[in-house]
């Protein structure tokens, strides 16, 4: 397992009990904002390169949290960027020095946070590195660049700290929950942090300060390599790719069984993004099964034990391809092939035509958990949990990347829009992965899992689920959960 013990000269830390040991964590909150100048000691200008969902959210959160200090947050964009108008509308301007050309901002920043698209970062990181002022710290919110450097034989520049703070949710969630936290202290998106290089010994507190300033209610330690592996695998599995495969296959299954389109959609997409996600978020994975009646539990058990094996095989395959660089190369090749051309949308299958009609029915009735859908979804989520545990990830990383990010950030957005909309509007790296692996999950469910679900449940697999250590780990993490659900209009 990744070592999670660390100390801070600035922030009060806590120890959280997890299966097999403890983890050191930082509980966030706005009461810690007065400590931010200490955490950012030596930093007078924070540069944020990029104005995508993460760049926008992090620049705004950092600026708001540091109001009243002598630390300036500046946004750096490429010349002619279409994002400049929105950055100006949000108060970053050339006139006051808080908006500028990206390499100029890089040259003037004490902490430079790189939040441009992965392919752009792969193509331009050497220019950015060359522009850095001496001793500037490089900040990342994703380990993709580390993977690219390892693939190409490159390195981070010597003499510069390299840290990461990685919110466990999409950029809009990072901003939206931060704003909710103005009224309810502690509302926000959990983050992991990593220290990759620390030449002057200040990296831990700098990373923790960055996480606190983003509004993270709970910060845990990882490594840049561990974050990259868990994040990229998660996108392709339970966070996006597998969800798309699940709902497409379940919709088809329900239609073949004679359900009307609206009913089939409710059993598939609406169930996962609604009652199943809410149950897991508030009361845990095991509660999804426990709250069913005996007949429903039998259906859940058969679906769960039939799905777990095929799902685990695909998650393991994804992990291997991320770890050996195959997935990274596929993303770079796709970006080179596609260039600036738009990617085709995935929301063209019949189920998405009834999305609006289903959404309009909300409030008219209380949609119950569908036990078959629940079994398939929980089995896939548990398969990812087990793969991460076997590969040595710490429990905080496992439950945040496999469960919390799904039910507290992504699934609420899928509920407000739909799954296809989410896949078609996420980052290109995530979108490419979901498009590649979603059909793999779909075919495995249709060809292997669903026929096997007609057979009695495998009691060994079922016992492994009901006694799984993830339940204790998730319970410990849930105690740090904000007291509000994300408000998605």
Automatic annotation (TrEMBL):
Domain of life per record: Bacteria
Binding site for Mg(2+) 1: 231, 235
Record-listed Mg(2+) 2 binding positions: 231
UniProt keywords, alphabetically: Amino-acid biosynthesis, Branched-chain amino acid biosynthesis, Magnesium, Metal-binding, Oxidoreductase
Cofactor needs: Mg(2+)
Pathway info: Amino-acid biosynthesis; L-valine biosynthesis; L-valine from pyruvate: step 2/4; Amino-acid biosynthesis; L-isoleucine biosynthesis; L-isoleucine from 2-oxobutanoate: step 2/4
SUPFAM superfamilies: 6-phosphogluconate dehydrogenase C-terminal domain-like (SSF48179), NAD(P)-binding Rossmann-fold domains (SSF51735)
KARI C-terminal knotted domain segment(s): 223-365
UniProt xrefs under InterPro entries: 6-PGluconate_DH-like_C_sf (IPR008927), 6PGD_dom2 (IPR013328), KARI (IPR013023), KARI_C (IPR000506), KARI_N (IPR013116), NAD(P)-bd_dom_sf (IPR036291)
Domain KARI N-terminal Rossmann per the UniProt entry, residue ranges: 26-222
Protein family: Belongs to the ketol-acid reductoisomerase family.
Protein's name in the database: Acetohydroxy-acid isomeroreductase
UniProt source species: Streptomyces spinosisporus
